[in-house]
């Protein structure tokens, strides 16, 4: 899986890749700071990728 690129210009600390196959939840208590803020366009791309993964992996 290639993932969704997130660049320094988009606010990442360093060039990064968001891998939607490895999304998991964590408690708010263990989060100490935000690393970046996503623009709406990038949020839409990520949401669409997650929808595609869910549709492909589960029978609704």
In words, what does this structure look like?
This protein is α+β, with helices and mostly antiparallel strands and 60 residues long. The protein has one domain (1-22, 36-60). The protein is built from one helix and two strands.
Topology:
Elements: E1 4-6, E2 16-18, H1 40-57
Antiparallel strand pairs: 1-2
Question: Which features characterize this protein?
Answer:
1 helix; 60 residues; globular; alpha+beta; single chain
Unreliable parts = none
Number of helices: 1
Cα distance, first to last residue? 24 Å
The number of strands is: 2
- Summed up, the domain count is 1
H/E series: EEH
Q: Kindly provide the radius of gyration, computed on alpha-carbon positions and rounded to a whole number of angstroms.
A: 13 Å
The residue-averaged pLDDT reads 84
Q: Please give the share of residues in helix.
A: 25-40%
- Strand proportion, as a percent range, falls in 5-15%
The major sheet is characterized as: 2 strands, antiparallel
Q: What is the topology, as strand order, of the major beta sheet?
A: 1-2
Structural class, judged by helices and strands?
Answer: alpha+beta
Shape call = globular
Produce a short descriptive summary:
With 60 residues, the chain is an alpha+beta fold.
């Amino acid at each position: 899986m290639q993932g969704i690129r997130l660049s320094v210009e988009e606010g990442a600390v360093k060039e990064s890749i968001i891998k939607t196959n490895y999304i998991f939840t964590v408690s708010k208590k263990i989060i100490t700071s935000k690393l970046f803020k996503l623009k709406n366009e990038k949020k839409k791309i990520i949401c669409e990728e997650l929808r595609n993964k869910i549709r492909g992996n589960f029978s609704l």
